[in-house]
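Quick one:
INPUT:
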């Protein structure tokens, strides 16, 4: 039996974008299915190259060919129609993909909008038309909420287009489904996160938290399509210092969960156990990925890397002991850092950037959201990080429930006072997150009447507001209409302050990290890295700072040649 995993095109955004980080889930599933000795391949049909080549026309074509509801309905029921089959075949041809001799097609849907889902459905129908014996499994986003997911699955499974849907499935359950499809005696109720059809009705098995720290294998993923290839910008400035080269970074995970329960965070509800790899195993996996895929750059995907003082020390010690030459970035908490020496060790172990979750400098709000830190801790830790030469970032949230002007001013004062220790800021408007304590127990946090609302009401060009799915009222404060206005005002005020002190918001985090990796590879002085990074970001924002450019050009760089 031959399996194939594909990730389809994300058509939810208006413009194509460069994705500089490959997916993590698909290569993890691929690696472990391969371990079961199945014949399996994987392909990513959502790379920046493919997006640029066909995204706009694909969205237009889908809307055009699907405007005839009767014709579309007949095709989805299994009747032949060259218009739809030719469209699907053309898309697969552009992506250099063939589904020949595939028995089980596993489709990851990257966005829950109509066009993205319909593209996946057309591919599934095209595949099923080859043989009714073929099996289709959907994963990813088959809708924007559970109600729409169940409704869509009911429709498409009834039409024979999809057989199974894995919702937030843990890896172990996904592997059980593979074995079930292969004819092994696996009960459906053992496959957590599964939605399937039985006796003409949809059945959903409750999903559970991922507990398996999977290995990854990127074989078959076109990593060259993810390469950051803008090094010529720096090469033109200093050709003897900056080579014109491409940079590929890989996602990596060695920790699951978070030991803390910040009320606004999606990790705050339910079982708060933390799973992690032994540092020796983690470093071994990093070495294999580095050697197999010829890269030394890694984007760690953790809530926080310093889950304990012992873990972070052991991990860095193992990298240094084995002389593994890599560069990496991660999120961190200001907890579990007790001295400046650990940051020196982190830098030696390849850490280029740490992003600290401060959220706010208001002691009242930090206590309110159960952050369990104080501004003085944050100030001390970012000083140590900066002094060690690590790129130091802060995450801020604007518009917490019951946020006052005094709270905002405390955050402004902190930024202004500590700007010289901060390199970038990631600013987000507050939004309720499912699976958080605030969402599950809103009254405990003084909010009520939680409901969905139309995103169009936000009227903001800033894509960070697209995460806001839920409206609410403050029980003893603002109605949602006034609260939304307050969130936007707080966000705008903090953005202006961040810009005023010379900090560049990390709006394009993945590309920003590619640039930093490149600069840290070729320069060993953080001040110079910051100058060149600023020049690059100003160019990207079409506001080239000529003074900064001339300053960097005329600086004494003899120590770095």
């Amino acid at each position: 039996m031959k399996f194939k995993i594909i990730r389809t095109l994300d058509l939810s955004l208006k413009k194509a974008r460069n994705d500089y980080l490959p997916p993590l889930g698909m290569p993890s599933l691929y690696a472990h299915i391969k371990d079961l000795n199945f014949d399996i391949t994987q392909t990513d049909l959502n790379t920046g190259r493919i997006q640029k080549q066909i995204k706009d026309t694909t969205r237009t074509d889908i809307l055009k060919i699907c405007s005839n509801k009767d014709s579309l309905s007949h095709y989805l029921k299994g009747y032949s129609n060259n218009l739809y089959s030719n469209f699907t075949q053309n898309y697969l041809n552009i992506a250099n993909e063939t589904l020949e001799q595939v028995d089980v097609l596993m489709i990851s849907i990257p966005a829950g909008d109509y066009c993205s889902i319909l593209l996946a459905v057309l591919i599934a129908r095209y595949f099923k038309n080859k043989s009714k014996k073929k099996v289709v499994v959907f994963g990813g986003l088959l809708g924007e909420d559970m109600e729409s997911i169940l409704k869509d699955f009911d429709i498409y499974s009834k039409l024979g287009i999809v057989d199974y849907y894995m919702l937030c499935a843990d890896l172990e359950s996904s592997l059980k489904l593979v074995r079930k499809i292969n004819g092994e005696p696996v009960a459906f109720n053992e496959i957590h996160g599964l939605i399937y059809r039985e006796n003409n009705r949809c059945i959903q098995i409750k999903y559970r938290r991922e507990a398996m720290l999977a290995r990854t294998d990127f074989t078959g993923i076109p990593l060259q399509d993810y390469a950051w290839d803008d090094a010529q910008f720096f090469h033109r400035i200093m050709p003897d210092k900056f080579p014109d080269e491409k940079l590929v970074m890989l996602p990596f995970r060695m920790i699951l969960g978070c030991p803390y329960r910040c009320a606004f965070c999606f990790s705050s509800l339910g079982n708060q156990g933390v799973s992690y790899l032994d540092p020796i195993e983690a470093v071994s996996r990093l070495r294999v990925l580095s050697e197999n895929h010829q890269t030394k750059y890694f984007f760690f995907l953790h809530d926080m890397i310093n889950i304990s003082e012992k873990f972070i020390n052991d991990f860095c010690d193992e990298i240094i002991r084995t002389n593994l030459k890599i560069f990496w970035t991660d999120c961190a908490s200001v907890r579990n850092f007790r001295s400046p020496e650990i940051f020196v060790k982190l830098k030696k172990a390849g850490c280029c950037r740490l992003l600290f979750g401060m959220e706010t400098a208001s002691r009242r709000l930090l206590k309110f959201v159960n952050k369990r830190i104080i501004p003085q801790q944050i100030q001390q830790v970012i000083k140590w990080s900066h002094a060690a030469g690590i790129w130091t970032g802060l995450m801020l949230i604007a518009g917490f429930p019951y946020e006052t002007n005094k709270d905002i001013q405390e955050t402004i004062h902190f930024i202004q006072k500590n700007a010289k220790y901060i390199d970038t800021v990631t600013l987000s408007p507050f939004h309720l997150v499912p699976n958080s304590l605030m969402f599950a127990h809103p009254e405990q946090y003084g909010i009520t009447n939680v409901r969905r609302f139309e995103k169009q009401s936000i009227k903001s060009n800033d894509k960070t507001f697209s995460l806001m799915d839920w409206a609410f009222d403050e029980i003893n404060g603002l109605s949602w209409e006034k609260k939304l206005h307050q969130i936007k005002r707080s966000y705008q005020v903090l953005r202006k302050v961040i810009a005023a002190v010379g900090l560049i918001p990390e709006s394009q985090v993945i590309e920003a990290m590619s640039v930093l990796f490149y600069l840290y590879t070729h320069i060993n002085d953080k001040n110079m890295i910051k100058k060149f990074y600023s020049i690059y970001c100003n160019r990207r924002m079409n506001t080239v700072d000529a003074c900064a450019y001339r300053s960097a050009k005329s600086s004494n760089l003899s120590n770095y040649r």
